[in-house]
Amino acid sequence: MLTVWGRRSSFNLQKVMWLVDELGVGHRHIELGGRFGGLDAPEFRAMNPHGRVPVIDDGGTIVWESHAILRYLAATYGRGSFWSDDAAMRSQSDRWMDWAQTALQPDFLIGVFWGFYRTPEPQRNWPAIKERIAKTARRVQLLDRWLADRPFMLGDALTLADIPIGAHLYRYFNLEIERPAVPNVEAWYRRLQERPAYRAHVMIPFGELAGRLDP
Ligand SMILES: N[C@@H](CCC(=O)N[C@@H](CS)C(=O)NCC(=O)O)C(=O)O
Predict the structure, then answer these.
(1) Cβ neighbours of residue 111 under 8 Å, at least 6 residues apart?
(2) What is the DSSP letter of 26?
(3) Which residues pair with 80 in a beta bridge?
(4) Buried b (16+ CB within 10 A) or exposed e, 134-149
């Protein structure tokens, strides 16, 4: 039996739960971290020395780091759909997953979501926030060009390439910030919202995180 630990409000947990649901893997989910605590418990630290969520235990195989978990789940339960044995094919998802974590995430999730939404108003650094909003806009415009002739990131079907970027969209489109017109990204976001797994695990209202710099 697969067990997944992490609070439902965690962006990194949401990606994992979205894929678990897309794959239809039976599982048990345990809320942990944030107001649920438990990150410093010795038994949790024994699984993840960093004390962070998400973590999975799949019949004794323990994995932490959300993208490592996505790849493990895809390779184990999604061969032929979310996982290819061909390295060149896999690299197509890999590059967008890595781009999401190393480029989009610092600009949007850290710079805008944390810098603006999660920071109490008196502490906000507006020049830095504005710069990150503008950088995020340029990244989303690049996505808009990429998505001009494909319904999902790699073509006709949802793949791992959609998950980390797609998980950002709910927050991006629900913050009170300036956004450029990005019709192709908006159409992709609508397609993701048609998926029950996306609605169940990514479209989680995040009001409890407003103005809170603690996890
Ligand atoms: N790079 C890690 C980041 C893990 C991480 O920072 N998780 C956050 C939640 S999104 C966390 O555990 N925060 C502490 C808490 O929830 O109490 C990953 O992708 O899994």
Answers:
(1) 128, 129, 131, 132, 133, 135, 136
(2) -
(3) none
(4) ebbbebbbebbeebee
Exposure on the CB side of residue 122, measured as CA atoms within 13 A: 0
Q: Which residue has the CA at smallest separation from atom 1 of ligand 1?
A: 65
How far lies 195's CA from each of 16, 103, 152, in Å?
A: 15, 26, 13
Q: Which residues line ligand 1 (CB under 6 A)?
A: 7, 10-12, 33-34, 39, 52-54, 65-66, 215
CA distance 37 to 45: 12
How far, in Å, from the CA of 186 to the mean position of ligand 1?
27
Q: Which two tokens stand for residue 7?
A: 């609070």
Among all chains, which residue has been given the structure tokens 């060149």?
88
User: Token pair for residue 33?
Assistant: 């971290």
Q: What is the mean pLDDT of the chain?
A: 97
pLDDT per position as a tens digit, 121-160: 999 999 999 999 999 999 999 999 999 999 999 999 999 9
121: CA distance to ligand 1 center in Å? 24
Q: Is the pLDDT of residue 207 over 80?
A: yes
pLDDT tens digits, one per residue of 162-187: 999 999 999 999 999 999 999 999 99
Ligand 1, atom 5: nearest CA belongs to which residue? Answer: 52
